[in-house]
Amino acid sequence: MSEKTIMLCCAAGMSTSMLVKRMQDAANEKGIDAKIFACPAAEVDEKLKQENVNSILLGPQVRYLLDNIKKKVEGKPIKVDVIDMQAYGMMNGAKVLEQGLKLID
C-alpha cells in the first residue's frame, strides 16, 4: 500500500502541529505509511502544487473554507472534510487519523 498524505489546514498552523505529531504517532503504531502535515489556510494552493495530497482536513476554526477548498480540488482525487470538533479539542490523533484515512479509502 502506498503512502497516504493528509494535509491539515488551519488558521496559523500552531495548534494543528501538535495534532499532526499525535496523528503520526498513531499511524506509526498501526503500521500505516502516512505523511501528515499542517499548513495555514493561506498556503493551501502552494502545498497542493508541491505535495501529492490524498485528503485535506480543516481545523474547526477554518470550517468556513470548506466549500472554497472543495472547489480548489474539484476534479482531483482529493477529499476534504472538517476535523471532528471533539477529536480536535481532545487532540485525539488516532481519531483524526481515522477520519483522514476514511476520506481516502
From TrEMBL:
List of residues that carry Phosphocysteine: C10
PANTHER family: PTS SYSTEM N,N'-DIACETYLCHITOBIOSE-SPECIFIC EIIB COMPONENT
Domain PTS EIIB type-3: residue ranges: 3-105
Stored InterPro entries: PTS_EIIB-like_sf (IPR036095), PTS_EIIB_2/3 (IPR003501), PTS_EIIB_3 (IPR013012), PTS_sugar-specific_EIIB (IPR051819)
Listed name of the protein: PTS system, lactose cellobiose-specific IIB subunit
Molecular functions per Gene Ontology: kinase activity; protein-N(PI)-phosphohistidine-sugar phosphotransferase activity
Any single biological process term in GO: phosphoenolpyruvate-dependent sugar phosphotransferase system
Source species: Liquorilactobacillus sucicola DSM 21376 = JCM 15457
Record flagged with keyword Transferase: yes
Pfam families given in the database record: PTS_IIB
Record keywords: Kinase, Phosphoprotein, Phosphotransferase system, Sugar transport, Transferase, Transport
